[in-house]
Design brief:
Radius of gyration: 22 Å
CATH architecture of the largest domain: Up-down Bundle
Structural class: alpha/beta
Number of helices: 25
Strand order of the largest sheet: 1-2-4-3-5-6
CATH class of the largest domain: Mainly Alpha
Shape: globular
Bound molecules: iron/sulfur cluster
Distance between the termini: 50 Å
Number of domains: 4
């Protein structure tokens, strides 16, 4: 189905019932129709039917109408909660992405440049991320942030980058290089209770450059559970440009990944990032207009597993070091709602980690992070986050588990702001520690986001 056909087919199915309103996090902050699925779809339909005309005059990106439309369209978290509540299961999130692509002026030009010069060229992205890390450690960024409130906010939200990225640490984790250039293999742990599958590990950008510890823990656990883990060169999954409506860039990245990840002779493609995993599973829709590639994408999509989805099927020994304190679990939108993976992380926490798990009220309510949403819409994101923090505090949990790096950063930020003493960790870290696979560099003292591991 083309992007136009998708828009056409979906918009007419909205009967304006309003069942989506109560589930929409942005509507529940502002109580304005423009911030709910129904209002957003009405606006798009009016535009399509010509009732809301974008004239030469008001089509300028700075005109009031374009700004109002832009706010409704860009204000969507793409969380998918409305689809779940909607009898017609309208995919408002997908329509918002298509609308972003079609807005006057199109997606931000910077996203295209970022993709062409960095996301498709990981060696350059790595170099620039190292530079950014040095800038932050030497205080350069602190000087620059005076020039931009967004930089200031970014410094608050994003924790200091690690000195070594996950790809720099493969040897330390136990990987060794394999024939094909840039390919590394972590052999099965000889103590494993079974001979598990051979898996290719997809290292998302957030995991590699910002939060390597969850990725390292997931790799160690997979090997301990009997998997042979392979890391090979690949590029960003494409979700960041897609979220900005830059479908051209997202498709370029998807094509490149199909080229790089095909033919590795593995059973599964695994990641601990709920957002990357969901987007990799959606390559067939993204490439629907290129039948040959769509078929390849279909085959790849069937191999994609969230790390929790695969690990929950493999035997692990009894935990030797269960978490000290009550644990609660936040469902990332792209993992729970997006991939239907809700039981597996909870089961791993209870059984493989031996955790005392309490259910989080509204566990699947978006945390407001949504990639860079917290930078683009800071007030709304903050209000959504406060609801999440209040729910976390109501459980009395000392440890908050989740399974997506973006949620992890957002939750740490929220708990830091509220002064809570709760620690936020990825499920992989909690299970690895409980299984006695604690990393030498594990980020001790990560309380609500302050970390003392910057050495
Ligand atoms: S629940 Fe679905 S059909 Fe009803 S208003 Fe919302 S999007 Fe439209
Ligand atoms: S995707 Fe989420 S934020 Fe967007 S309209 Fe639906 S419920 Fe609201």
């Amino acid at each position: 189905m083309t992007d136009d056909e998708l828009m056409e087919q979906e918009l007419v199915r909205c009967n304006k019932c309003g069942y989506c309103l109560s589930t929409c996090p942005t509507y529940n902050v502002e109580f304005s129709e423009g911030q709910a699925a129904r209002g957003r779809l009405v606006l798009l339909q009016a535009l399509r039917d010509g009732e809301l005309a974008l004239s030469q005059e008001n089509q300028r990106p700075d005109s009031g109408l374009v700004q109002e439309l832009g706010e409704a369209v860009s204000g969507c978290l793409l969380c998918g909660a409305c689809t779940e509540a909607c009898f017609s299961a309208i995919h408002t999130d997908e329509l918002m992405v298509r609308a972003r692509a079609g807005m006057p002026g199109g997606p931000p030009k910077g996203v295209r440049l970022l993709t062409r010069h960095f996301l498709l060229r990981p060696e350059r992205l790595t170099a620039i991320m190292r530079l950014a890390g040095v800038g932050r450690r030497t205080g350069m960024v602190r000087l620059l942030r005076r020039l931009s409130p967004t930089l200031e906010l970014a410094e608050e939200l994003v924790e200091p980058a690690p000195r070594e990225f996950l790809r720099d640490r493969l040897r330390e984790i136990g990987f060794h290089p394999e024939g094909r250039s840039g390919t590394w293999v972590l052999p099965r742990d000889p103590r494993a209770l079974t001979v598990g599958p051979r898996v290719v590990y997809f290292i998302g950008c957030g995991t590699n450059y910002q939060l390597p510890e969850p990725g390292a823990a997931a790799m160690r656990l997979l090997a301990r559970a009997g998997c042979e883990v392979v890391v090979c060169p690949h590029v960003c999954c494409g979700l960041p440009p897609y979220s900005y409506g830059d479908l051209v860039s997202a498709r370029e990245l998807a094509r490149r990944n199909l080229e790089l990840l095909g033919g590795l002779g593995a059973d599964f493609l695994v990641t601990e990032c709920g957002s990357c995993g969901r987007f990799l599973k959606r390559y067939p829709e993204l490439l629907a207009e290129e039948p040959d590639l769509a078929r390849q994408a279909e085959a790849l999509g069937e191999q994609v597993r969230d790390f929790t989805e695969l690990l929950a099927t493999l035997p692990l020994p009894e935990p030797v070091n269960p978490p000290a304190g009550v644990v609660t679990y936040h469902d990332p939108c792209h993992l729970g709602r997006g991939q239907g993976v809700t039981e597996e992380p909870r089961r791993l926490l209870r059984e493989a980690a031996g955790a005392k798990l309490v259910e989080l009220p509204e566990a699947n309510w978006c945390c407001g992070g949504a990639g860079t949403y917290n930078l683009a819409h800071p007030q709304r994101s903050e209000a959504i986050l406060q609801r999440k923090v209040a729910n976390i505090e109501s459980t009395g949990a000392e440890i908050v588990a989740t399974a997506c790096p973006a949620c992890l950063l957002q939750l740490r930020h929220g708990l830091r702001m509220s002064g809570s003493g709760a620690v936020v960790k990825h499920v992989a870290e909690i299970v690895a520690e409980a299984q006695g696979l604690r990393s030498a560099r594990v980020e001790e003292g990560v309380r609500g986001g302050t970390t003392n591991c910057e050495t």
